[in-house]
Specification:
Elements: E1 11-12, E2 15-17, E3 37-42, E4 48-52, H1 65-75, E5 81-83, H2 86-89, E6 103-105, H3 106-115, H4 119-130, H5 133-148, H6 170-180, H7 184-190, E7 194-198, E8 203-207, H8 212-215, E9 219-227, E10 231-240, E11 243-252, H9 255-272, E12 273-279, E13 297-303, E14 307-312, E15 316-322, E16 328-335
Parallel strand pairs: 2-13
Antiparallel strand pairs: 1-2, 3-4, 3-11, 5-6, 7-8, 9-10, 10-11, 12-13, 14-15, 15-16
Helix pairs in contact: 1-3, 1-4, 3-4, 4-5
Length: 336
């Protein structure tokens, strides 16, 4: 038996989007995940399609760099020249082998950060903005709280190296990624498969660490991670037709198991759900224009191939959903 959930309205440039509603896991869903926490959402609407321990506090590792990257893109000047410090040069873990005193554009640092997971690039970005990783972490936390709107994340550094206070949830990372993927520069970088890197200390071809870009049709991003305390973490996005799903998996036992979990989540999403984008003709609702904001487009998540009609009554703007058994279910999506 289908369960229908409450929808609410979001005004963004006359586009109505259903956010943060939750679908119950389908009765015929039978896959199991290796990852200890996971979530699958509709990237357009925020609707949760599947979740497992999605509000549990976990260590994110390098998926932290999603936040560092989007902050750099939105709050910095990508043409600015950044001088690499000794601290950035000596950071441990995955690097793009920046040298002390090397001068690099902020854009190139973001590319090295998101494509090759450069911890040194992350530290250089942090110092460019705020002088230190600790000060930049304060900026990160304010950004995810005030700009993105998530509440259960606390960052201590720009790259995700282990700190016991450096924690997030699968849900928060999904919403952060949903925000970041709206930015075309961020989207382009995390979707880049390979890039020539010419630096003072390293000349090579960078290959994106997110293997789904080669393995799963329609993959558009975004970032993987690993430290021993976090296990393998992964955030990915896939677009086919009108639907773009975002998924997060935390603490898998290996990278291949994390990728396997992603494939299961995305297959499940495309099998069971769809994103509907309906262009409305305001003239069809002419008698209601004085009492309602008529959107140019209506965006919502529904079951796969679910039938629907759109109507207005005297008290609210409605979607009328027709089940496969012909029963009409009314979903209120706005009011006077």
């Amino acid at each position: 038996m289908k369960t229908f959930y409450h929808f609410f309205l979001l005004f963004v440039s006359f586009i109505f989007v259903f956010q943060n509603t939750v679908y119950a896991t389908k009765d015929d869903q039978h896959f199991s995940l290796n990852s200890e926490a996971a979530i699958l959402i509709d990237g357009a609407t925020g609707t949760i399609l599947y979740e497992k321990e999605s509000n549990r506090l976990m260590y994110p590792a390098s998926i932290t760099k999603i936040v560092t990257g989007i902050i750099a893109i939105e709050e910095g000047n990508l043409d600015d020249i950044v001088t690499v410090s000794e601290t950035a040069r000596n950071v441990i873990g995955t690097r793009v082998y920046l040298l002390e005193g090397e001068q690099v554009t902020l854009l190139k640092l973001v590319q090295g950060l998101l494509i090759n997971s450069g911890n040194d690039a992350g530290t250089a970005i942090a110092e460019y903005f705020d002088g230190s990783e600790a000060q930049f972490a304060e900026r990160m936390n304010q950004f995810v709280r005030d700009t993105v709107g998530v509440k259960n994340t606390n960052f201590q550094n720009p790259h995700g190296l282990f700190d016991e206070k450096h924690q997030t949830t699968a849900y928060d990372m999904a919403i952060i990624t949903q925000y970041a993927m709206k930015n075309p520069i961020f989207r382009s970088i995390v979707g880049t498969k390979e890039m020539e890197w010419i630096g003072k200390g390293w000349e090579t071809t960078l290959y994106n660490h997110n293997k789904l870009l080669w393995r799963y049709e329609g993959t558009t991003g975004v970032k993987n991670g690993y430290v021993s305390q976090s296990g393998n973490t992964l955030v990915a996005s896939v677009k086919r037709g009108n639907s773009e799903w975002i998924a997060v998996t935390l603490k898998a036992d290996s990278s291949e198991l994390a990728y396997g979990d992603m494939v299961k989540l995305f297959d499940y999403g495309f099998e069971h759900f769809q994103t509907n984008k309906i262009t409305l003709n305001p003239s069809a609702f002419e008698s209601y224009i004085d009492r309602f904001v008529i959107p140019e487009q209506l965006i919502f998540t529904s079951d796969k191939d679910e039938k629907f009609d759109i109507q207005i009554d005297d008290s609210a703007f409605l979607i009328v959903v027709l089940n496969f058994d012909g029963k009409k279910i009314f979903k209120r999506i706005g009011n006077q």
